[in-house]
């Protein structure tokens, strides 16, 4: 039997083809150049000053198959540590600062959930997974999920009732971590209110690995990144990635020091770096390909990772893994079916099927230390792109 990547690639070359991304002018993309100039100026200010929004950042935005903006600013690595007494980063020697460039990989954090979700919908398309099937049917050893009737749909829509996270990083070994996950009961009835939870994607990872008999990193590579030519995307470790945090208690959950090229999320780290909720590294250019593929109905060039009906299922309300119409980070792009996600390390993407636009903003806002999230720059950038569409 051919692999998913092989079968999708051949079918795509026979039936579907979508234009590949190419650089172009705002006018070529059907966007207002003055609004995009404002977008770029505002983006460059995000890394200015002694306490910038992010040490470094990369921005890619476009419409249709045209990349109209590709900018980088600031530093992929600027600090060696965080000083609690001064509440400031300890800077590396100036000559050791590493600039952020368009090719800099970033720790995607929760953007990883989007890839896990696409991998799950691929299995829906193949008929090996049922969206309303009970998790217990695939994972009978997960007694709490089985007892409470948690379904695949509940996991993908964050309506399982599971709490946001578990201290898996405090468990002594993988067996204890798995036992904790298996026994975790929902705190509210499944199918009710949406409660965003990393545990949903961890359970979904277990389901996918059980039904395919392949680890998640292989599923993502063979089913998504390899056919799309996303060569800079993969689970860590990742040489040359933007630095994240001087990870220490009490502000963090582990004492690991300044992190660069290894996953920031403590639970993903405890799980070996490959987890359904976090662990991927990627570049803004690769994520633009990911966005373009979904905006084109699941195809990119001659590759197809999903059929159009399944992309529609993925992005239809309430969204399977994707967050829909969230003005707090999508700005004026939200309101008519925009989809995307954010990541704790400072990453985000948004794509708007109504205007065929996409925006990827990758940053290391946790360098040198985590702090409360500030989504205003994300929303402002998306609003600039929305205005560029209206003003074109």
Annotation keywords:
392 residues; Beta-lactamase; three-stranded antiparallel sheet
Q: What do these coordinates show?
A:
The chain has 392 residues and is α+β, with helices and mostly antiparallel strands. It has one domain: 3-Layer(aba) Sandwich (Beta-lactamase), CATH 3.40.710. The chain has helices at residues 4-15, 26-29, 33-45, 112-126, 135-138, 143-147, 152-156, 174-183, 198-212, 216-228, 266-270, 284-295, 308-315, 327-330, 376-391; strands spanning 22-23, 56-63, 66-77, 79-83, 88-91, 98-99, 106-107, 234-235, 243-247, 257-260, 280-282, 299-300, 303-304, 323-324, 339-343, 347-352, 357-363. The strands form five sheets. Strands 1, 2, 3, 6, 14, 15, 16 and 17 form an eight-stranded mixed beta sheet that branches. Strands 7-11-8 form a three-stranded antiparallel beta sheet. A two-stranded antiparallel sheet has the order 4-5. Strand 4 (79-83) and strand 5 (88-91) form a beta hairpin. The longest helix is centred in the last third of the chain and has 16 residues, at 376-391. The chain is globular and about 55 Å long.
Please give the structural blueprint.
Elements: H1 4-15, E1 22-23, H2 26-29, H3 33-45, E2 56-63, E3 66-77, E4 79-83, E5 88-91, E6 98-99, E7 106-107, H4 112-126, H5 135-138, H6 143-147, H7 152-156, H8 174-183, H9 198-212, H10 216-228, E8 234-235, E9 243-247, E10 257-260, H11 266-270, E11 280-282, H12 284-295, E12 299-300, E13 303-304, H13 308-315, E14 323-324, H14 327-330, E15 339-343, E16 347-352, E17 357-363, H15 376-391
Parallel strand pairs: 1-3
Antiparallel strand pairs: 2-3, 2-17, 3-6, 4-5, 7-11, 8-11, 9-10, 12-13, 14-15, 15-16, 16-17
Helix pairs in contact: 1-10, 3-15, 4-9, 4-10, 4-13
């Amino acid at each position: 039997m051919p692999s998913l990547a092989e079968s999708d690639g051949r079918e795509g070359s026979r039936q579907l083809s979508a234009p590949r991304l190419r650089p172009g002018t705002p006018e070529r993309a059907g966007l207002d150049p003055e609004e995009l100039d404002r977008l770029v100026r505002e983006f460059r200010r995000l890394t200015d000053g002694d306490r910038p929004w992010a040490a470094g950042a990369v921005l890619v935005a476009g419409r249709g198959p045209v990349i109209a903006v590709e900018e980088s600013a600031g530093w992929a690595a600027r600090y060696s540590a965080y000083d609690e007494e001064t509440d400031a980063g300890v800077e590396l020697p100036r000559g050791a600062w590493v600039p952020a460039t368009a090719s800099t990989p970033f720790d995607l954090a929760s953007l990883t959930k989007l890839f896990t979700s696409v991998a799950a919908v691929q299995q829906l398309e193949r008929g090996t997974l049922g969206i309303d099937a009970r998790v217990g049917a695939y994972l009978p050893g997960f007694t709490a999920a089985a007892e409470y009737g948690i379904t695949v749909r509940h996991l993908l829509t964050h309506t399982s009732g599971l709490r946001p996270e578990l201290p898996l990083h405090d468990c002594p070994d993988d067996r204890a971590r798995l036992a904790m996950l298996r026994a975790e009961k929902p705190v509210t009835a499944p199918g009710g209110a949406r409660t965003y939870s990393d545990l949903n994607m961890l359970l979904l990872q277990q389901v996918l690995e059980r039904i395919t008999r392949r680890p998640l990193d292989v599923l993502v590579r063979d089913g998504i990144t390899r056919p799309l030519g996303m060569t800079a995307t993969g689970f860590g470790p990742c040489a040359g990635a933007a630095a994240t945090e001087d990870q220490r208690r009490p502000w963090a959950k582990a004492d690991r020091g300044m992190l660069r090229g290894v996953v920031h999320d403590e639970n993903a780290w405890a799980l070996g770096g490959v987890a359904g909720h976090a662990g991927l590294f990627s570049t803004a250019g690769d994520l633009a390909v990911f966005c373009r593929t979904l905006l084109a109905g699941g195809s990119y060039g001659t590759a197809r990772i999903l059929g159009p009906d399944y992309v529609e299922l993925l992005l239809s309300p309430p969204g399977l893994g994707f967050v829909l119409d969230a003005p707090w980070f999508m700005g004026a792009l939200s309101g008519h079916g925009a989809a995307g996600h954010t990541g704790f390390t400072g990453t985000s993407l948004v794509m708007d099927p109504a205007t065929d636009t996409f925006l990827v903003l990758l940053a290391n806002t946790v360098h040198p230390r985590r702090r409360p999230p500030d989504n205003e720059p994300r929303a402002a950038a998306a609003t600039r792109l929305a205005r560029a569409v209206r003003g074109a």
